[in-house]
Design goal:
The protein is globular. The strands form three sheets. Strands 3-4-5-6 form a four-stranded mixed beta sheet. A four-stranded antiparallel beta sheet has the order 7-8-9-10. It is an alpha+beta fold. The protein folds into four domains: about 30 residues, no CATH class; about 90 residues, no CATH class; about 35 residues; about 70 residues, no CATH class. Helix content is about 25%, strand content about 20%. Strand 9 and strand 10 form a beta hairpin.
């Protein structure tokens, strides 16, 4: 028997765990593991344990129905159903899931939060050099500050012309891809593995049309491709989702607030 995918509308076999067209999971599939939070309370505890900034900074509100723009969240309504939502920059609300399956609902926000942590780690500034002291070093310190300012301005100018999409999973014309740095990789379901691919026609302008936060098959993060390009000397994203940075390093303004999810 075939059923309709809630996300793209394709008709798929009810025994499938994911939609082969868009990669979205079926609402009845159990997509959580023992290590993942399954309740709203467990997700709140996971958030605290991973040293994430306050919710007003990350804009992820767990157990709260926030109505203001630019917010992700999960809460239980008056009927006891779990609601997973995203408030766009305009204030329009996109409902990701609404129903009685709390483990499924929690996992939706959990996976989106993990993806946001990866993006924030990739975008956060590196540690600044220690400040100079002593009168003899003042002029040198000023020179360093000017150099940093010039590099910042150059980076800002280059970012205007940078058309590179964010790192992460994509579903492009029915094929699962992962973008990392300047490289693309595709998933082969026959071998249950990832392979390097040629550049595909996705850039910053249309990335939100193809980017997904769920994927089928083997995690790209578990491959040698990811290990080789993840800059693990600087960040601990291979080990866990611990933030490990200051609240000022988290820039929720860089989040794509115009997409549905």
């Amino acid at each position: 028997m075939k059923i309709k995918c809630e996300y793209c509308g394709a008709m798929i076999e009810e025994t499938s765990e994911r939609c082969p067209n868009c990669g979205a999971p079926l609402s009845g599939a159990n997509r959580t593991s023992n290590e993942q939070p399954k309740t709203i309370e467990e997700l709140q505890a996971w958030y605290v344990a991973h040293h994430l900034p306050p919710e007003e900074v990350t804009r992820f509100f767990i157990g709260k129905n926030i109505t203001e723009p630019k917010a992700f969240g999960i809460y239980k309504d008056s009927n006891g159903d779990c609601v997973v939502y995203k408030n766009k920059s305009t204030g329009e609300r996109a409902i990701r899931y609404q129903g009685s399956d709390e483990a499924y609902a929690v996992n939706e926000l959990y996976q989106r939060l993990r993806a946001e942590i990866v993006d924030q780690k990739a975008n956060r500034p590196s540690n600044q050099p220690p400040a100079s002291d002593g009168n003899k070093k003042k002029r040198k310190g000023c020179g360093c500050m000017m150099a940093i300012l010039v590099l910042f301005l150059i980076g800002a100018i280059l970012s205007v012309f940078d058309n590179t999409p964010p790192n992460g999973y994509y579903n492009y014309h029915g094929t699962q891809y992962y973008h990392q740095g300047s490289s693309w990789y595709y998933y082969d379901s026959n071998t249950d593995d990832w392979y390097e691919s040629q550049d595909i026609d996705i850039d910053k302008d249309n990335a939100s049309d193809y980017r997904v936060y769920d994927h089928s098959g083997k995690d790209f993060e578990s491959t040698s491709w990811y290990d080789a390009g993840s800059n693990s000397d600087d960040y601990d994203w291979d080990d866990d989702d611990d933030w490990g940075g200051s609240s000022s390093d988290w820039d929720s303004g860089s989040t794509d607030w115009d997409s549905d999810w």
